[in-house]
C-alpha cells in the first residue's frame, strides 16, 4: 500500500486518468435509456384496491338500507311481493338506489372472488377457467339486473 | 411436530378469514337474488311463488345468517378502511375488531325478532 494520498484513485486502478487518458464512461444504474423496456402493467391492482374501499363505504349505506326496508320494517319479509316491488320501483329514487347497489355489489364481489381465485387456484389453467366463469356470470347478472330495473312493467298482464 | 410452532392466527388473521368467507357467501346469494328478482319480468305469480319460499321458517333462518354475514362484512370492512387510511389504524386494529364484534352482537340480538318473528309465529302459533 502506497503512502501517497494525493490521488483519489487507489493503486488497484493502476493507470491515472487525465484529459488525454479519460476514464471509461460508465452509465448510471437504473437510468432510463432507449433500451429500457416500457412498463408492462399499469396501476390496475391499485385501482382495484381503491375501488374495494370506495364501493365498500357506499355499499354499507345502500345494502344496510335495503336490508332494513326488506327484512326489518313493516312486517319484514312477509310483506314482499310483486305489488311491493311495483310500489318501490314507481319511484326513480329507489330505481337509482337499486341500480347503483347492483353494479357496485356485483363489481365489488367479482373483484373479491378474483382475489380469492388468484390466492387458491395454483394452476394457471384453473385460474383461467375459474375467472372466465366468474366474469361471464358477473356480466350476465349485471346486464340481467339492469334490464329488469329499466324494463319493469307494473301492468305486465 | 414440535409443540408451539403451528401458527393458529390472532385477531388479524381470523378477521381476514371471516371477511373472505362472508364475502364469498354474500356474493353467491347476490347471484340467486338477482335471478329471483328477475322473475318480476315473467309474471307476478312466478315472482310471488318464489318469494313465498323466502317466507318459510327454514329460509328465515338462512336470512338471519345472511344478515349476520352482511353485518360482519360491513363493520369489518369499515375497520379495514380505518386500518388502511387512518394513521393510527394498524395500532388499534385489535381494539377495532372487538368493537366490531361488540356492535355485531348487539345488532344480531336486535335482529332476532324483526327477522325471525314471523317464523316463530308460524311455528309456535301467534
Describe it.
- The complex is a heterodimer of chains A (157) and B (126).
- By secondary structure, chain A is mainly alpha-helical.
- Chain A has a domain at 44-151: Fumarate reductase/succinate dehydrogenase, transmembrane subunit (3 helical TM bundles of succinate and fumarate reductases, Up-down Bundle), CATH 1.20.1300.
- Chain A has helices spanning 44-72, 82-88, 92-120, 124-151.
- In chain A, helix 1 crosses helix 3.
- The radius of gyration of chain A is 31 Å and the shape is elongated.
- Chain B is mostly helical.
- Chain B has a single domain (11-124), classed as Up-down Bundle (3 helical TM bundles of succinate and fumarate reductases).
- In chain B, 79% of the residues lie in helices and 0% in strands.
- Chain B is built from four helices and no strands.
- Chain B has helices at residues 11-38, 44-54, 57-85, 93-124.
- In chain B, helix 1 (11-38) crosses helix 3 (57-85) and helix 3 runs antiparallel to helix 4.
- The termini of chain B are far apart.
- Chain A binds chain B through residues 53, 56-57, 59-60, 63-64, 67, 71-72, 75-78, 80-83, 85-86, 102, 105-106, 109-110, 112-113, 116, 137, 141, 144-145, 147-148, 151-153, 156-157, and chain B through 20, 23-24, 26-27, 30-31, 34-35, 37-38, 40-41, 43-44, 47-48, 51, 54-55, 60, 63, 67, 70-71, 74, 77-78, 80-81, 84-85, 111, 114-115, 117-118.
